[in-house]
Amino acid sequence: MKAARDRFPSAAEIAAALSEPAPVDVKPVRRWWRMHQAVAIGLYFLASVIGWLTKEWYAVGPAVALFAAIGMAATAAGVIRGHLLFTERMNQRGLATELRRTSRMTKVVDLMIAFGLCADSALLLIGTGRTVAAVLSLGLAVGIALARLVVEPSTTTTAFTQ
């Protein structure tokens, strides 16, 4: 039997306790999921910089269009990932819904960025002869695609499966 000090003093306090959200046990692995989101946002910035450099070095229509496409896609993807980080911190109960809702969007946008960087690589190699920049652009393209298709599904599953 519980001591009087361990019991709720009134039914109103019981109702208030029941209406509060239950504490959510945050798994330590969520830190890695957050890190993945932050790194992805940084890679989007880097992709935009490479697109801009290609535009400056190549200075012809296709490079301008690629820069615009990569920049817009990177901005959209960064906003989505920022939203997921915010939701994970502020509305953990709604996170599963947001992850499902944004999964296809991030996949499409990440692959758009990767393909844009592949095209940038070709322009850099063929149009300017900048081999190092072309290889770095291609490496970033492959990294973004692999991070989205292989790494992210496993970190998300591990971080949010109870």
Span between N and C termini?
32 Å
Instruction: Give the mean pLDDT.
Output: 88
Q: What's the alpha carbon Rg, rounded to whole Å?
A: 23 Å
Biggest sheet layout: none
The helix/strand class is mainly alpha
Number of helices: 5
Strand content: under 5%
Helix content: over 70%
Count of individual domains: 1
Strands, total number: 0
Low-confidence stretches: none
Order of secondary-structure elements? HHHHH
**Can you tell me the overall shape?**
elongated
Q: Would you give an account of this structure?
A:
This protein is mainly α. Helix content is 83%, strand content 0%. The chain has helices at residues 11-19, 30-58, 61-90, 92-128, 131-160. Helix 2 runs antiparallel to helix 5 and helix 3 runs antiparallel to helix 4. The longest helix is centred in the last third of the chain and has 37 residues, at 92-128. The chain is elongated. The model has no long low-confidence stretch (mean pLDDT 88).
Write the layout of secondary structure elements.
Layout: H1 11-19, H2 30-58, H3 61-90, H4 92-128, H5 131-160
